[in-house]
Design brief:
BCAT-like_N; 15 strands; BCAT-like_C; binds pyridoxal-5'-phosphate; 8 helices; about 25% strand; D-amino Acid Aminotransferase, Chain A, domain 1; D-amino Acid Aminotransferase, Chain A, domain 2; about 25% helix
Length: about 325
């Protein structure tokens, strides 16, 4: 069995299903109630546009103590993503009912920390009826390893740059969590092939002298400054074309309450080197401190334990 990058377990090389997985067919477009499926059997038709074109959206939730965390933030982004792809607005009550069903099954299977996905596809080419699934799988050991050890990261040009505030290219779907993650996975494979753990996408500088920071392939970037009486957490402006992170948004709320100044700002790679600490945030992994950036070690600041506790609370929706 191998660990996927968003913190869930994937099948092993023989295609064998992992020991424990809950699968629910949501039937997002029909009257049929969500129903449990046998995880050892296929659930997708060969002409489903999720498989054929990656034409759909998803969310990945942390499951802790039998519950999904930050449900409202994920559901809001899911609805927004659906709108950007011109998919019918998801019936959230139905998706939540499917989630409850999956979590009951998960508990029957033994429960434990997990990763729960909502996947919503444009549906089969032959029918045009949207399809959707909720799945639960065990949390990968890789996520706790990254939390404990941090990650060595390379910066990498994403290959395109957009100002989404000017609605420059709505078809690029930047800001939607689409099923088309092949390029993100390719960037992570590239990093791993070069002995690194993760990537921070950048865009060529437009006069600032240093490339602009975007996001990780599966994470939001934060830079922390804690010196000379300044206690600040910065993340790139959404306008640069990043997926708005639920963990970062929750962190900004809890850290703001704890006295940190939290700001979206036009971050550059030079700002990351100048920061006291840099972290990658995402729902299941929660946080991974960047221990080295493009080969330069980044020290662990005194505030690290506090930031990581705040990030844990944020990811757990506490
Ligand atoms: N940015 C990208 C591209 C992602 O794929 C993810 C999560 O998978 C994030 C940011 C972090 O989002 P969240 O904190 O909602 O998990």
């Amino acid at each position: 069995m191998t660990a996927s990058y968003d913190g869930s377990m994937t099948t092993d090389a023989t295609g064998t299903a992992p020991d424990r997985r809950a699968v629910v067919d949501v039937h997002p477009a029909g009257d049929a109630a969500p129903e449990l499926r046998d995880p050892s059997l296929p659930v997708l038709h060969i002409d489903d546009l999720a498989a054929v074109r990656g034409d759909g959206i998803f969310e990945t939730f942390m499951v802790r103590d039998g519950e999904v965390r930050n449900l409202d933030r994920h559901a809001g982004r899911f609805t927004n993503s659906a709108g950007m792809l011109d998919l019918p607005a998801p019936d959230l009550d139905r998706w939540i009912a499917a989630t409850d069903l999956a979590l009951v099954r998960w508990a029957e299977l033994g429960g434990g920390d997990a990763s729960l996905r909502w996947m919503y596809s444009r549906g089969r080419e032959s029918t045009g009826i949207p399809t959707g699934w909720v799945t639960v799988a065990p949390e990968s050991p890789a996520v706790s390893r990254d939390r404990d050890n941090g990650v060595a990261v390379m910066t990498a040009h994403r290959g395109y740059s957009l100002d989404i505030s000017r609605d420059a290219a709505p078809w690029a779907l930047v800001g939607a969590k689409t099923l088309s993650y092949a390029a993100n996975m390719a960037a992570l494979r590239y990093a791993r092939a070069h002995g690194l753990d993760d990537v921070i996408f950048t865009a060529a500088d437009d006069g600032e002298g240093s490339d602009r920071v975007l996001e990780g392939p599966t994470s939001t970037v934060i830079a922390v400054r804690d010196r000379d009486g300044v206690r600040e957490i910065l993340t790139p402006l959404p306008e640069v074309g990043v997926l708005p992170g639920t963990t970062q948004a929750a962190l900004f709320r809890s850290a703001g309450d704890a006295g940190w100044t939290c700001r979206e700002a036009p971050l550059t790679v030079a700002d990351l080197f100048d920061a006291d600490g840099v972290w990658l945030l995402s729902s299941v992994r929660r946080y991974a401190r960047v221990t080295a950036l493009d080969g330069t070690p980044l020290g662990r600041p005194d505030c690290a334990a506090e930031i990581e506790e705040l990030a844990t609370r944020a990811a757990e929706g506490r």
